[in-house]
Amino acid sequence: MKRFTASMALVALFACVFPFTGHAATVPLIKVQSGDLVRGESFSAVYYVGKDGFRYVFPNDKTYFSWYANFDDVKWISDADLATIQIGGNVTYKPGARMIKINSDPKVYAVDDGGTLRWVMSEEIAISMYGSAWNTKIDDVPDAFFGNYDIGSDIETSGDFDPVGASADASDINHDKNLKAATVLNISDDYFDNASMTVKVGTPVRWFNNGTNKHTATATDLSWGTGTIQPGGNFARYFNAPGTYTYFCSYHPTITATLIVE
User: Fold this and answer.
1) Are residues 6 and 106 in the same domain?
2) Rounded Cα gap, residues 131 and 203, in angstroms
3) CA end-to-end span of the chain, whole Å?
4) Are 53 and 236 in contact (CB under 8 A)?
5) What is d(CA 215, CA 96) in angstroms, rounded to the nearest whole number?
6) Number of C-alpha atoms within 13 angstroms, CB side, residue 224?
7) Last residue of a domain, one of 180, 199, 218
8) Which of 60, 125, 227, 260 has its CA 20 to 30 A from that of 165?
């Protein structure tokens, strides 16, 4: 069985530039919801708005077109509104849509759910999964973005991976990234509205400043913090390890609260 390496692939580098003509009317941030595609007024980068309230970056056009056929549904928002949406990370290729490789690794990988890469071990397997034109279905991913992916089990036979089924299962980026809605914690001027809250591990938590003063949510041991949250602003972070997290407002140290992650 012939070993399958990058020398067999047709690859090219792409820049994350998205062509747009004209200027669409901007929509207010209140009309942006989970699953939307958005861009600002000044730059052409397109983002996916996740269920967790973060925006996710398409590193290049090939990643984008593995998920979408065109830009028809992209919403334009003001640069100021775009800046209020935190960046959550990069979008990875849609499972099953394409194979990928990087310059520093001779292997060619199929993309499985959640950005999991699985080495396609032979040309014969590639043909069985992607057809005789398999070598036109490989994209080169810059080394800098390879860290967005995880390495899974090798594909030793054609029965180990079904590209069509993997693509069908990835209904959208929310599903592929397993994004969850954030637990909301409000900050008033004199206290955290939830002095003690319990959430599941892997849950994003979003603090909203409903007061008239600046506030923070800062770990008691200073290991993490939201930074300054302006009145009307918000900040979110994921808690991926179980434990008890105590925090305070650095502007008003007597304001404290506890988050239990289990």
Assistant:
1) yes
2) 40
3) 48
4) yes
5) 45
6) 10
7) 180
8) 60
Domain of residue 169, residue span: 1-180
Query: What is the domain count for the chain?
Result: 2
Same domain, 76 and 134: yes
CA distances 25 to 19, 40, 81, Å, are: 17, 11, 14
Q: What is the CA radius of gyration of the chain?
A: 22
Say which residues have a Cβ less than 8 Å from residue 159's Cβ, sequence separation at least 6.
none
- Which pLDDT band holds residue 20 (cuts at 50, 70, 90)? low
pLDDT digits over 120-178, tens only? 999 999 999 999 999 999 999 888 888 899 999 999 998 999 999 999 999 999 999 99
**30 phi and psi, to 5 degrees?**
-65, -20
Q: What is the CATH number of the domain that holds 199?
A: 2.60.40.420
Residue finishing a domain among 155, 180, 205: 180
Q: Is residue 60 domain-shared with residue 101, that is, in the same domain?
A: yes
**In angstroms, what CA-CA distances link 84 with 55, 78, 80?**
10, 10, 7
Q: Are residues 213 and 144 in the same domain?
A: no
Strand partners, 260: 198, 244
| Cβ-Cβ contacts under 8 Å for 157 (sequence gap 6 or more) | 125
Model's pTM, two decimal places?
0.84
